[in-house]
Design brief:
- The chain is of the alpha+beta class.
- The strands form three sheets. Strands 7, 8, 9, 10, 11 and 12 form a six-stranded mixed β-sheet that branches. Strands 1-4-2-3 form a four-stranded antiparallel β-sheet. It has a two-stranded antiparallel ribbon with strand order 5-6.
- A hairpin with a 6-residue loop joins β2 and β3.
- It is globular, with a radius of gyration of 21 Å.
- The chain starts with 5 loop residues before the first strand and ends in an 8-residue tail after the last strand.
């Protein structure tokens, strides 16, 4: 059977070699350094830990306009053999052999996962294909919720974010059903903490009989209304935690349509 590979490609600004090496360094940024409202990172671990949870080999290649492609590789098998964390830096002539490198745009970055020994377990044939399809469908649902503000253009950044999985677009999913006429919305409340501000707003969703089949299907795929009630916490427009009352009360039938949106910026990371 063919080895699994997963490529994630963007058309962002791209990186030079120094920036790429820093991005591949575990804990690359001091978490105490102030972040902008468009910076989703904090500890400099996300790319590496997310990748190693699924694959033993991580390759990142990047390019800026009129600059050569630069690449760096973490290979856990090599780390084990050499008992040393040595970052691989392919020569320019070797970059062309990186899988999916032809998908890299003039400005952008390619993240490649190889040796994916935990993504499809040990299945073969139809069972393997079905499992991969199921995981990619779950990925689409997750991204449509967590990044729904970026996809819809609500986030405090320029333009909308387009996400595609195997060339299929991921549509934004609004967990508050704000476009539905039967949704009840409370006034926004703002809470100041020092020089920073949190925003809180509550919603009562329509009864499921008033929802479209697509909206109802999404909720049912994640446990129906009862499991999705609670607070929805956003940091810099990204949904960080949701569907939980966080010990303030128990989930119940009487509150199954309640959702509370809580927004905070990275300035309040220490408090959160």
């Amino acid at each position: 059977r063919d080895p699994l590979q997963l490529a994630i490609v963007d058309n962002g600004f791209g990186m030079d070699e120094a920036t790429l090496i820093d991005a591949m360094r575990p804990g690359s940024a001091d978490p105490r350094v102030p972040r902008t409202q468009t910076d989703l990172g904090r500890f400099g671990l996300g790319l590496k830990t997310a990748s190693f949870s699924q694959a033993r080999r991580l390759t990142v290649a990047s390019r800026r306009t009129q600059e050569p492609i630069v690449a760096a590789i973490w290979d856990l098998d090599r780390v084990t053999e050499e008992n040393e964390w040595t970052l691989g830096l392919p020569q320019e002539r070797d970059v062309e052999s990186i899988p999916w490198i032809e998908e890299l745009p003039t400005n952008g970055t390619l993240v490649l996962w190889e040796k994916m020994d935990r993504f499809a377990e040990t299945l073969d044939g139809d069972g393997r294909s079905d499992l991969i399809d199921s995981k990619l469908a779950g990925l689409s649902r997750h991204l449509s919720l967590v990044f729904h503000r970026f996809i819809s253009g609500e986030a405090k950044r320029a333009g909308k974010l387009a996400i595609r999985i195997n060339n299929r677009p991921v549509a934004a999913f609004d967990p508050f059903c704000r476009d539905h006429p039967a949704t009840q919305t409370t006034p926004k409340e703002k809470v100041r903490i020092g020089s920073s501000e949190m925003e809180i707003q509550a919603y009562i969703l329509p009864h499921h009989s008033k929802l479209s089949p697509n909206t109802l299907s999404f909720y049912q795929s994640r446990g129906d209304f009862l499991s999705n009630q609670g607070a929805y916490i956003y940091r810099n427009d990204r949904l960080m935690a949701w569907g939980n009352w966080f010990g303030m009360k128990a989930k119940g039938e009487a509150t199954k349509l309640a959702r509370v949106r809580i927004d905070f910026t990275s300035e309040l990371d220490d408090q959160w």
